[in-house]
Design a protein that fits this description.
2 strands, about 140 residues, Non-ribosomal Peptide Synthetase Peptidyl Carrier Protein, Chain A, about 70% helix, about 5% strand, two-stranded antiparallel sheet, mainly alpha
């Protein structure tokens, strides 16, 4: 059983998948930083200076009672909040990742189509064909 697992785990497709997952996680971290640190502050300023991460509705107040300025303050007080601003951030994050992946797949498909459209160069003649051509040409000259 160990040998079968070893054979399965070392197949090219499994290794390719593992590399893809690792790169995907790293890419996700880059996109999350882009959304959280660059894009959402700009959108927040355009929306009147608000930080979407702090858009929430308090469902149950904690101790001490509200009003709470931030979502972290609600959680620190032991309250329960519906954090819809975090959901907005996640949706924007998802849309950016989906668009980036769409553009990447589109570029790869375009490159494959371009590669398939160009005809392959004809194979050079074999050694025998070259020799036969030389013999034919010599006979034709006589």
């Amino acid at each position: 059983m160990f040998q079968e697992f070893k054979k399965f785990a070392l197949q090219g497709s499994v290794m390719d998948m593992a590399v893809g997952i690792i790169i995907g996680v790293a890419f996700g971290a880059i996109i999350a930083s882009f959304v959280g640190d660059i894009l959402m502050p700009v959108i927040g300023v355009m929306a009147g200076g608000a930080d979407f991460a702090n858009y929430f509705v308090v469902l149950k107040e904690g101790t001490p009672g509200g009003p709470y300025a931030t979502l972290a303050a609600v959680k620190a007080a032991g309250g329960v909040a519906l954090a819809y601003g975090v959901l907005i951030n996640a949706i924007v994050n998802f849309l950016i990742v989906a668009m980036a992946l769409f553009l990447l797949v589109r570029a790869m498909n375009s490159a494959r189509r371009a590669e398939a459209a160009t005809p392959a160069a004809p194979a050079p003649p074999s050694r025998e064909e070259v020799l036969l051509t030389e013999i034919r040409d010599l006979l034709a000259r006589r």
